[in-house]
Amino acid sequence: MQEAFPLFTVMESTFQSERHPSTRNFTHGFVLKNETLAQHSYASKVPPEITLPVFMFVGGALGNVIAIIVLSVSRQGRKSSAFYTLVSGLAVTDLLGTCLASPFTIANYLDQNVLNDQRVCEFQSFLLLFFSLAGLSIICAMAAERYLAICCAYTYERWGVDRRFAQKFLLFIYISHIFFCCLPAMGMARSQPQPSGNWCFIDWATEELVAAVYMVVYGVVSALLILGTIVLNLRTVHRALSSAAETQMIALLVMTSVVVLACSAPLVVSRTRPTYDLAAIRIASVNPILNPWIYILFRKSLFYRLLGVFRRRSSTAVPIWRGICTFLGPNPWTELVKCTERRQH
């Protein structure tokens, strides 16, 4: 009886190996073929389109982390500035938006049923509503701060606009925008997957009165922020070119404003053309990728170096151009022909 047990064990193991074929693995022994096939099938299910969202996620997160570090190690005078406090707030906002919203898009490429969950869809819609509006609000606040500092210096000093003032204003933006953007999840508007199926947003084509009112208010607020940013920048630019420090701040503000407005506009236009929704959300996702590199490139030391190189080149180019014009005289084409003929002879 004792010798029958090993024989029975061998027969049972042979029977199990026939039911579950295996392949030889020289590091882990035998591996079942079903597990190997499952791994291959999972790898084949990963779509190649996921490369772009992953790349944009990594680029946005890494760039904003670098920008926050660069802004944190700057000089104490810049740390206490209300303008650079707002710039840091915009970098943190972009970083949070990238880290919170992008994983849902990546997960939807792996599983097309992720956004079919209404709670997930509403949460992603809230994230897009909040971070889009918060970015526009911070940009407008930056433009207003520069306008008050340059064009209304007395009011700027009387209000005590400093780092703490900017921090309180950022806190007000976050709290008010969280409440406003939570209204669709509370029943004021309905969130649904967009035609491309890769992201969720509020339903702009609804005929419900309350939802229509909310969408009109959201659109009007966004348009006013964009218009206010443009007007304040235009009123400030021609007054800020007297000093290099103000020129650097205005250059940073204008470049950031152009990037934010250019990336946000297609998302608004796509509401009238739903077939462009995927391209619009991808363009909007470029915003947090480009913004941090503007902060990095427009650092004070680097900006002064570029400004010095530009001034040196312009100062050497003007005398050269004047000498050319003096040499050529009133008839430059005739003089050029004579010079060519003399060189040929």
Automatic annotation (TrEMBL):
Source taxon at top rank: Eukaryota
Membrane topology: Multi-pass membrane protein
Entry annotated with the keyword Acetylation: no
Gene Ontology terms: biological process: adenylate cyclase-activating G protein-coupled receptor signaling pathway; cellular response to prostaglandin E stimulus; inflammatory response; negative regulation of inflammatory response; positive regulation of cytosolic calcium ion concentration
Primary residence: membrane
Gene Ontology terms, MF aspect: prostaglandin E receptor activity
Keywords, sorted A to Z: Cell membrane, G-protein coupled receptor, Glycoprotein, Membrane, Receptor, Transducer, Transmembrane, Transmembrane helix
GO-annotated cellular components: plasma membrane
PROSITE patterns for the chain: G_PROTEIN_RECEP_F1_1, G_PROTEIN_RECEP_F1_2
Subcellular location: Cell membrane
UniProt domain G-protein coupled receptors family 1 profile: residue ranges: 63-295
Transmembrane segments: 50-71, 83-106, 126-148, 169-189, 209-237, 249-267, 279-298
Database matches in PANTHER family: G-PROTEIN COUPLED RECEPTOR FAMILY 1 MEMBER, G-PROTEIN COUPLED RECEPTORS FAMILY 1 PROFILE DOMAIN-CONTAINING PROTEIN
Similarity remark: Belongs to the G-protein coupled receptor 1 family.
UniProt-recorded name of the protein: G-protein coupled receptors family 1 profile domain-containing protein
Organism: Mola mola
